Amino acid sequence: MKKIVLVTGVSRNMGLGFETARQLSALGYTVVITARDIDKVTLLAADAGLIAKTLDVTSESSIDKLVSQFSEQFGKLDVLINNAGGFFDQGGAAASTDMTFVKDAFDLNVLGAWRTIKAFKSLLEKSESGRIVNVSSGAGSFTDPVFGMANHAGNVPAYAITKLALNGLTVKFAKELKETKIKINSVCPGFVATYPGTEAWGARPVTEGVKGIVWAATLPDDGPSGGFFRDGKSLNW
Ligand SMILES: NC(=O)c1ccc[n+]([C@@H]2O[C@H](COP(=O)([O-])OP(=O)(O)OC[C@H]3O[C@@H](n4cnc5c(N)ncnc54)[C@H](OP(=O)(O)O)[C@@H]3O)[C@@H](O)[C@H]2O)c1
After folding, report:
1. β-bridge partners, 229
2. Three-state SS sequence of the chain
3. Ligand 1 pocket check for 188: Cβ under 6 Å
4. The domain 4-234: what is its CATH number?
5. How far does CA 200 lie from the centroid of its chain?
6. Which end of the chain lies in a sparser environment, N or C, as judged by fewer CB atoms within 10 Å?
7. Ligand 1 centre from 9 Cα, in Å?
8. In the prediction, which pLDDT does 102 show?
């Protein structure tokens, strides 16, 4: 049976999730792409020979429904890409941020991945080589010279702190999964042109940005777990 991949947050053809799905599909994986809006994801899947399903990562019942579908259809999960994310509060300030915005950002960027990993853990354990990739950001790094917590010109306080917490989740799960075949890592794709006009600000092509995600999704059995990477190279926390 082919390896099965689940990618969350795939509603746009310019997004990292869709390109990750396309590259993994080209490598021979069976790829399930998911989004809140079934119409959007169905359209994308049809164009690229992928499977479309509904998933809202802020809803436990939505996740549980998808787990049941995977159990029946595939009986396992080989690769989970926690790509769904957002709440990029460019130019924000921690001192004036609306706390509802912060709560919603955590609900999506941290708890979304946490719920999904928890719910799919037993199906990942059925894989010969389970891999989890948490799509993080240099904004959640303390020391990244351009995007890091103390250096980011745009500040993005809520976004950065959720990605910092997501990296913590990676470390905790790596510790708990140490005796299993599952590897989990955080990956920063770099600044990627997933929205029109961002190339002019220095964003790189999506095809380049997803390479590190695909690398972490396809790690060999002696590959790392519990790390933070960009383009397959270690990033400082
Ligand atoms: N682009 C960059 O430069 C960059 C850099 C570092 C990290 N990242 C990370 O990369 C990931 C993908 O970002 P992107 O740039 O490709 O932008 P994007 O296309 O906007 O990706 C975010 C996706 O998350 C989905 N989403 C939002 N709420 C959701 C929910 N409750 N359940 C499921 N899906 C939900 C969105 O779908 P809806 O249409 O339903 O809202 C969208 O498809 C994010 O985690 C982002 O933080 C991006």
Report:
1. 187, 234
2. CCCEEEECCCCCCCCHHHHHHHHHHHCCCEEEEEECCHHHHHHHHHHHCCEEEECCCCCHHHHHHHHHHHHHHCCCCCEEEECCCCCCCCCCCCCCCCHHHHHHHHHHHHHHHHHHHHHHHHHHHCCCCCEEEEECCHHHCCCCCCCCCCCCCCCCHHHHHHHHHHHHHHHHHHHHCCCCCCEEEEECCCCECCCCCHHHHCCECHHHHCHHHHHHHCCCCCCCCCCEEECCEECCC
3. yes
4. 3.40.50.720
5. 25
6. N
7. 6
8. 98
Nearest protein Cα to ligand 1, atom 34: 9
Does the beta carbon of 8 lie inside 6 Å of ligand 1? yes
Q: Where are the domains of the chain?
A: 4-234
What value does the mean pLDDT take over residues 59-74? 98
Phi, psi (5° rounding) for residue 44? -65, -45
Out of 12, 81, 198, give the residue to mutate to test ligand 1, the one with the largest number of ligand atoms within 8 Å of its CB: 12
Q: Is the CB of 161 under 6 A from ligand 1?
A: no
pLDDT in tens, 149-190: 999 999 999 999 999 999 999 999 999 999 999 999 999 999
Q: Are 194 and 206 in contact (CB under 8 A)?
A: yes
Pairing verdict, β 233-234 and 228-230? antiparallel
Q: How far is the CA of 179 from the centre of ligand 1 (A)?
A: 31
* Sign of the C-alpha dihedral computed for residues 20, 18, 4 and 140 taken in this order: positive
